[in-house]
Write a structure and sequence with these properties.
Number of strands of chain B: 11
Distance between the termini of chain A: 36 Å
Strand content of chain B: over 45%
Largest interface: A-B, 25 and 29 residues
Number of helices of chain A: 0
Oligomer: heterodimer
Largest sheet of chain A: 6 strands, mixed
Shape of chain A: globular
Distance between the termini of chain B: 34 Å
Strand content of chain A: over 45%
Order of helices and strands of chain B: EEEEEEEEEEE
Structural class of chain A: mainly beta
Helix content of chain B: under 10%
Number of strands of chain A: 11
Chain lengths: 110, 114
Amino acid sequence: KNEVEQSPQNLTAQEGEFITINCSYSVGISALHWLQQHPGGGIVSLFMLSSGKKKHGRLIATINIQEKHSSLHITASHPRDSAVYICAVPQETSGSRLTFGEGTQLTVNP
Amino acid sequence: DTAVSQTPKYLVTQMGNDKSIKCEQNLGHDTMYWYKQDSKKFLKIMFSYNNKELIINETVPNRFSPKSPDKAHLNLHINSLELGDSAVYFCASSQDYLAYNEQFFGPGTRLTVL
């Protein structure tokens, strides 16, 4: 069992739909990262969160530390949101050492 | 100005060759990383340096040797390249090595070993 599991692995949506990507982890952490990898390959950090909820534009990330679960939501999805979304958790023993989920490939059709 | 830059962007080479990938960050960060992304798009940490000192060294073949001449640069040298080394290599940096810090990624170097 991977330490970090994402679901679904692939997701196809129509423009305007509400999207949810889930991340569950089995290690104890104090923070979780959500990353976006563009079709061209570049990786950007979307959120780092340690509790509750964060919002950036149409993106919302939530985390439940007790349940070891985080979700990334996209409201009013758009084709430009098509990308791979990756969650990553730091190891307790080495905060900067991230363990990555396998990613969720999101395709938003017009 | 690019925050984290890598050169080259593409690298095609023969098995057995030695090659280097360079990384520079202009964010004033103390910590830098090398990640490998395999054909299945799975990212794995390889190395991390904090202020020029090695702090993370995963189970990576010793053909891979990172070098940090100063805290703004972290280069990756690979000896005796093998087919299995083909991947995309990402450099990243963060303010320091604590868990709470956002990591900023370079554009990646696609290495193809023939």
